[in-house]
Amino acid sequence: xxxxxxxxxxxxxxxxxxxxxxxxxxxxxxxxxxxxxxxxxxxxxxxxxxxxxxxxxxxxxxxxxxxxxxxxxxxxxxxxxxxxxxx
Length: 87
Description:
It is a single chain. By secondary structure, the protein is mainly α. The protein has helices at about 1-65, 70-80. The chain has two helices and no strands. The longest helix has about 60 residues, at about 1-65.
């Protein structure tokens, strides 16, 4: 009788350990999926911001032709100050 109770307790322990393992694996999968989605969204927004800034810079250069490399460098520096994603 004592052996049966001990076997039942040991069996319950292993079942609880396996169940806890399954819960941890599922939670880890969900957390890593959420992290991957966040990184994907951050990267997409950063690329969109860079693209928008560079298009804006192209429009500024087209509207006001630069007289030299210094003017273009000044425009680029202004854009860099306004968008840290570019650097």
